[in-house]
Predict the 3D structure of the following.
Amino acid sequence: MSHCHIYIQSLRQRGYRVTPQREMIIEALADSAGHVTAEEIFAQVRKRTRAINLATIYRTLDLLVETGFASRLDLRDGYAVYATAQHGPHLHLVCKACGRVIDADHSLATPIDELLREQYGFSPDLQHLSILGLCADCLGSSAAGSSAAGSSAEGKSEEGE
Amino acid sequence: MSHCHIYIQSLRQRGYRVTPQREMIIEALADSAGHVTAEEIFAQVRKRTRAINLATIYRTLDLLVETGFASRLDLRDGYAVYATAQHGPHLHLVCKACGRVIDADHSLATPIDELLREQYGFSPDLQHLSILGLCADCLGSSAAGSSAAGSSAEGKSEEGE
DNA sequence: AATCTTATTGCGAGTATTCGCAATAGAGAG
DNA sequence: CTCTCTATTGCGAATACTCGCAATAAGATT
C-alpha cells in the first residue's frame, strides 16, 4: 500500500521505532477493506512471516489507535475490530441485533462535541465514538414480526441472527 | 434498598424468574453509589452468601442492562462497569487519562439521536453511549505541565496527544 | 402440597486480550 | 561500522468475561 509508507515515517518521527512487525501490521490493516479483528490481522501477517506474535498485533493496533492512524471498536460480542482512519473520522453505528457496523458521517457529532466542551470542559475523542442501537433493517423486521404483544419468557435471551 | 423491590416485581411480571441470586445482585448494585465492576458486586454478594457464582453475576448484570435497570460501560482497561439507571439515562464521559467516568446530561445526545434516525434509519441506544476523551482536569494538567492528575498512563504514550 | 415445565445456576473449560519479563534489535552517537 | 541505550518483541501466565451442559429450583397448574 502506498501511503502506509508516509505513516510509517511519521511514526519514526514521533520517536517510535519502526520494526518489520509494525510495518506488516500497518500494511495488513491498510489492505483490509473494512473492520478487522486482531486475529484477522494476525492471520494476514502470518502469511508473510512466522516472526509475529498476537500480543504484538494487539500492542501495535493500540499504538495505531493512540497515534490516530486507526480506530478501535469494541463489539459487545467480546471482541474488538479495528479500521484505518485514512478515510477520515466517522462514527460507528453498531447494530445490536445483527452486529453490523455502519459508518456514519462524523459531522453528526459536531453538536454534542460542542456541548460537551462548553458544559463539561470535556474534550471528546469522537473518532472512537461508537453508538449501539438497531439498524434500519433490524428495526423494520422486529416491528413487522411481533408488535410488542404478550412476550413471555421466549424472546428475551435471543439476540443476533 | 427500597425500590429494588419494585424492580424485582417488574422482572417477575416480564416473565423472568426471581431468584435469591438476582435479588442480591440487584440490591448490591443499587447499594453501590457509582459504577461498579462485576467483581465488586460479586464480593458484595459473597458477604451474604456463598451460593453465588461469578458467571451468574455477569449474566444477571447483562439481564439488567437488557431490561433497562442498569447500564454497562466498557472501559478500555479491559473491564466493564455497571450502574443502576434509576437516576435516569445519562451519557458516560470516560477520561482516557485518569479513567474517571463523568455522568453527563442525557439531553446532550438529542441532536445526534434525531440525525441518526432521520439520515440512517438507525435507532440508537443512547443509554449505552459512552464517550472517550479527556476530562477538564486532565486537559488542564496536560496543557499546564504536570499535576497530581495522571494516574495510570505510562511513559511516552500519553505525551503524543 | 405435589407435580411439572423450563429458566436459571454453578461449574469447568474456552475465548479475547493484557501483562511481566528476559531477549532482541532499531536508531543515533562515536 | 560498532557500540550503546532502551523501545519492542515473544512467550507464557494472568485477566475479564462467556459458554455448554447437567443439576436445581421458580412459578404455574392441579
The radius of gyration of chain A is 19 Å. The helical segments of chain A are 4-13, 20-31, 38-46, 54-67, 110-120, 136-145.
